[in-house]
Design brief:
Layout: H1 2-14, E1 20-22, E2 27-29, E3 39-45, E4 51-53, H2 68-76, E5 78-80, E6 92-96, E7 99-105, E8 111-115, E9 124-127, E10 135-137, E11 144-145, E12 152-155, E13 163-166, H3 168-175, E14 178-179, E15 192-195, E16 198-201
Parallel strand pairs: 3-7, 8-13
Antiparallel strand pairs: 1-2, 3-4, 5-6, 6-7, 8-9, 9-10, 11-12, 12-13, 14-15, 15-16
Family: Belongs to the UPF0598 family.
Organism: Ictalurus punctatus (Channel catfish)
InterPro entries: DUF4505 (IPR028108)
Length: about 210
């Protein structure tokens, strides 16, 4: 019943005049039914962790999804799209009963937005608007700053690729904790992260997810 209520609520929120879209992301109609009793919807996640219907023309805080129940359900059921439908343009999929919710993203399908505990053991990162209901253990030694873009990444659930983006505002907060090799400034690759009184050597293990020169 919970799944039914969530899906019905979402369908009502997304109801609009059917329009076929082609924006380099494949042809689709929001709410299309390729099979009996099956509905398909298409979403976009920006680099700030805000979720939108993919065809939303103006994407900002006003037009993004904010209902926490919806966001928690969506991202807890998110996985890599292996459905043989829209895999090239929408590489992730969240299933809700008979609904297929396809997702593309500006960077990663998980965007960490807040640190829920600043010190001590058990610190967690919150992601994608889920507050305390969407979290991942904070691993300071695994933070990775991309040498080309300067964006900061952190491990995420393996089910959706194992890597998440740290939102720019949170990355700026972290920046003062990065340490660099002697003689190098903040434009170089950090080597350590000072956190809660501990000096963590950065493993840069997440570099394997990127074509780093």
């Amino acid at each position: 019943m919970i799944i039914t209520r969530v899906c019905v609520w979402r369908s009502a929120m997304r109801a609009k005049t059917p329009i076929v879209f082609w924006r380099g992301h494949g042809t689709y109609t929001q709410g299309q039914s390729p099979e009996p009793r099956i509905r398909e919807y298409f979403y976009y996640l920006d680099h700030q962790g805000q979720l939108f219907l993919d065809d939303t023309k103006v994407k900002n805080f006003v037009t993004c999804f904010k209902d926490q129940q919806f966001l928690v359900f969506f991202f807890k059921h998110l996985k890599i799209n292996r459905s043989d439908r829209y895999q090239q343009h929408f590489p992730f999929l969240s299933l809700c009963g008979r609904e297929r919710n396809f997702l593309r993203c500006d960077d990663q399908p998980i965007v960490f937005t807040h640190l829920l505990s600043e010190t001590g053991q058990g610190a967690h990162l919150s992601y994608c608007g889920g507050g305390t209901k969407l979290t991942f253990p904070f691993q300071p030694h695994s933070l990775f700053m991309h040498p080309d873009s300067g964006r900061v990444y952190h491990p995420a659930p393996e089910l959706i690729g194992g890597v998440g983006l740290v939102r720019s505002a949170l990355a700026i907060e972290f920046s003062s904790h990065f340490h660099y090799s002697s003689g190098q400034d903040s434009s170089a690759q950090p080597t350590h992260f000072l956190w809660a009184g501990q000096h963590y050597k950065l493993t840069n293990e997440l570099s394997r997810h990127f074509a780093v020169k």
